[in-house]
TrEMBL record:
Pfam families with a match to the protein in the record: APH
Domain of life: Bacteria
Stated name of the protein: Phosphotransferase family protein
PANTHER family membership: AMINOGLYCOSIDE PHOSPHOTRANSFERASE DOMAIN-CONTAINING PROTEIN-RELATED (PTHR21310:SF40), AMINOGLYCOSIDE PHOSPHOTRANSFERASE-RELATED-RELATED (PTHR21310)
InterPro entries in alphabetical order: ACAD10_11_N (IPR041726), AGP_Transferase (IPR051678), Aminoglycoside_PTrfase (IPR002575), Kinase-like_dom_sf (IPR011009)
Record-linked CDD domains: ACAD10_11_N-like
Domain Aminoglycoside phosphotransferase: 81-275
C-alpha cells in the first residue's frame, strides 16, 4: 500500500477567489474575477490559482496567480521570496527569447491573501504530469511517438542552452546567496543550511550527510563561470503547445551558478521518475532524456562541454533528497505517515542516491 498523496494546502480556493476579487477591485475598479480554479498539479511550495479577468483595461484576460506557501502548512522551504521570483521572470523575458509568462501585478503585502503573491499571464497547453509521472503509461507524453518525444526533448534542452547563453551573467548576481566563496560554493553552503533547517529538532539523515562529504571529494577543479540557472529545470515545469514549449514556469529556485547545476538537475529529475517507474515494473521511457544525449546536445548548442557531471548529478540527487525528507516530515506532521527508525527510508530515491555516493550508479 502506498502512502497517501501529501496535502498541498490548508487554504480554501473559494475563499481565495473572494479575497482576490476584492484585491483586484482596488487595482482595476469594476473588474470581475471569473473561472477561478486550482490546477490539479498544484504543488507544496508556491500555490497556483487560475482565473479570468473581465475589464476593458485588463492587460490580459487569462491569468495565473502564484501565492507564497501557507505558513500554517509546514512549508517545504524556509522562505518564499515572491518579489525575487517576479524579478527573475521579468528579466528572463527581457533578456532571452524563452517563452516566459508576462508578469503583471506583484503584491508584497500578505494581508489581501494571507501571503505575498504575483499575477502573470496564463499559457494554454499541457504539462508532463508528476503524479503519476509522465514515465508511467496512460498520459499524453508516454503515448506520444518516438519522433514526438524527440521533438520535445530537442526543444526542451534548447531552452536551457538559450537561457544560459542569452542572459547577461552580471544581471544574475543578485541571486547569489550571502556568504563568501565562489558561486558554486555558496550554492552548496545554502543547501547545507537548508538541510540543517529541515532536520532541526528531528532525526538527521546519514545518507544525505555522506552525500555532502562525497561532494567535497568530487569538487570540480574548474567550476566554470556562473550563469542564470532556471533552478527547477525540468519538463514538468513547462507548458507545451503540441511538443513545443509555450511557457517556462516555476522560477522560485533560480540561482547564479555554473551551467552544470541546471543541467545536472534536468538529467537527474528525469532519472528519478524513470527509476521509480522501473521499480514498479514498467519500462518507462528508457530512450528519453538520456544523460549522454542531453550532454552531447547541450555542447552542440552552446559550445560548452558539460564537466564534472558525476558531481552535478549527485548534487541534484542530494538536493532532491533534502526536499523529499522535508516533505516526509511534513506528512508526519499532518499524521499522514509515521517516521521510521531509519530516516533515510523517508527519501524515496535513497537506493539511487546511495549508489551515486558509492560511484556505482552511472
Amino acid at each position: 500500500m502506498t502512502a497517501p498523496r501529501p496535502r498541498t494546502s490548508t487554504r480554501e480556493p473559494e475563499e481565495l477567489g473572494r479575497r482576490l476579487a476584492a484585491w483586484l477591485d482596488h487595482r482595476l475598479p469594476g473588474a470581475k474575477v471569473t473561472g477561478t480554479s486550482v490546477p490539479g498539479s498544484n504543488g507544496m511550495s508556491s500555490e497556483t490559482l487560475l482565473f479570468d479577468v473581465e475589464h476593458p483595461s485588463a492587460p490580459v484576460r487569462a491569468c495565473a496567480l502564484r501565492l507564497a506557501a501557507d505558513p500554517a502548512a509546514y512549508t517545504v522551504f524556509p522562505a518564499y521570496d515572491m518579489p525575487r521570483q517576479h524579478r527573475v521572470m521579468a528579466l528572463a523575458a527581457e533578456h532571452t527569447d524563452l517563452p516566459v509568462p508576462r508578469v503583471l501585478w506583484l503584491e508584497e503585502d500578505p494581508a489581501p491573501l494571507g501571503a505575498p503573491f504575483f499575477v502573470m499571464a496564463r499559457a494554454e497547453g499541457r504539462v508532463p504530469p508528476d503524479v503519476m509521472p509522465y514515465t508511467y503509461e496512460g498520459n499524453w507524453l508516454h503515448s506520444a511517438t518516438d519522433a514526438e518525444r524527440a521533438e520535445l526533448q530537442e526543444e526542451s534542452i534548447s531552452l536551457l542552452a538559450r537561457l544560459h547563453d542569452q542572459f547577461p551573467a552580471k544581471e544574475a548576481a543578485f541571486l547569489l546567496p550571502p556568504g563568501t566563496g565562489s558561486p558554486l560554493r555558496r550554492h552548496v553552503d545554502a543547501q547545507r543550511a537548508y538541510y540543517a533547517w529541515v532536520v532541526d529538532g528531528l532525526a538527521r539523515s546519514p545518507l544525505l550527510e555522506r552525500a555532502f562529504d562525497r561532494l567535497e571529494e568530487l569538487w570540480p577543479a574548474d567550476e566554470g563561470d556562473p550563469v542564470l540557472n532556471w533552478g527547477d529545470a525540468r519538463i514538468g515545469n513547462v507548458v507545451y503547445d503540441g511538443f513545443r514549449p509555450a511557457a517556462v514556469l516555476d522560477w522560485e529556485m533560480a540561482a547564479c551558478a555554473p551551467r552544470e547545476v541546471d543541467l545536472g538537475w534536468t538529467v537527474y529529475l528525469h532519472r528519478f521518475f524513470q527509476d521509480l517507474t522501473v521499480g514498479f515494473g514498467q519500462p518507462g521511457l528508457p530512450d528519453f532524456l538520456r544523460r549522454e544525449d542531453l550532454e552531447r546536445r547541450y555542447a552542440e548548442l552552446t559550445g560548452h562541454t558539460p564537466r564534472d557531471m558525476e558531481f552535478h548529478t549527485l548534487y541534484a540527487a542530494l538536493r532532491h533528497g533534502i526536499v523529499m525528507l522535508r516533505i516526509a516530515y511534513r506528512q508526519a506532521y499532518f499524521g499522514e505517515v509515521e517516521v521510521p527508525a531509519d530516516p533515510d527510508g523517508l527519501i524515496l530515491h535513497h537506493a539511487s542516491l546511495a549508489a551515486m555516493v558509492q560511484g556505482t550508479y552511472w
